[in-house]
Amino acid sequence: MPPYAAIPRFHLSNLPVTTKVALTCFALLLLFAMGFTALVSYPERTKYAADGARDNFAGTEWRQERGEIVEQERAKPSERQIYDIVHPHSFLMAVVFFILCHMMEMCRAPRAVKIGLYLLAFVSTVAVLLAPLLVWKRLAWAPVVGPAVIVMTATYAILTVVPLVQMWMMRDVEGAG
Q1: Rounded to an integer, what distance in angstroms lies between the CA atom of residue 107 and that of residue 164?
Q2: DSSP 39
Q3: Domain count along the chain
Q4: Measured between alpha carbons, how far is 139 from 156 in angstroms, rounded to an integer?
Q5: Distance between CA atoms of 28 and 166, rounded to whole angstroms?
Q6: 82 in a domain, yes or no?
Q7: How far, in Å, CA of 53 to CA of 45, rounded?
Q8: Residue 105, domain extent
Q9: Full-model pTM
Q10: Residue 132 in contact with residue 86, Cβ under 8 Å?
Q11: What angle do CA 81, 86, 92 make, to 5 degrees?
Q12: Model confidence pLDDT, tens digit, residues 48-71
């Protein structure tokens, strides 16, 4: 039982309006960031394709070695540049993951569903965080990038939307916690 369930009549809908507004603003900013990344940034860099991920994280030299004509050449990033991508994202994503799991933990949902979401979000986050380094080291990892991004975005969206729905649209009803 989560600690929140020990509080009599605890439910997200019973939170003070100031807390609900703050959590909602956080969630909306996060949804905007996910949408921008999924619909603008990621496709611009990868074209939603494994070859695009290879180009983004390992440069276009591999295409030239295969005799392909490259419209826009990209140099292979240095090891330091790859680390500069992974390092800040590692800290940021860990904080976002923790906050989303904490918000979901305050929701009424079956324990198995929550644990499944947490594990799926964790594994996909680790895959997304390691993707630049893995593709940079070995091009064969590129096909993992797209599915990892999709799963991470989907689980983060669920972990963001469910608390919003329960906070604003549901009333305090006894349920699984």
Answers
A1: 10
A2: I
A3: 1
A4: 27
A5: 15
A6: yes
A7: 7
A8: 15-168
A9: 0.87
A10: yes
A11: 135
A12: 999 999 999 999 999 888 999 888
In the structure, what pLDDT confidence band is assigned to residue 2 with cuts at 50, 70 and 90?
A: low
Indicate whether 35 belongs to any domain.
yes
Distance CA 28, CA 19 (A): 14
Compute CA distances 130 → 87, 146, 170, whole Å. 10, 13, 38
142-171 tens-digit pLDDT = 999 999 999 999 999 999 999 999 999 987
6 is a domain residue: no
Q: Is 5 part of any domain?
A: no
141 near 135, Cβ under 8 Å? Answer: yes
Which distant-in-sequence residues (6+ apart) come within 8 Å of 177 by Cβ?
Answer: 1, 2, 4, 5, 108, 109, 111
Structure tokens that stand for 150 in this block: 């999709």
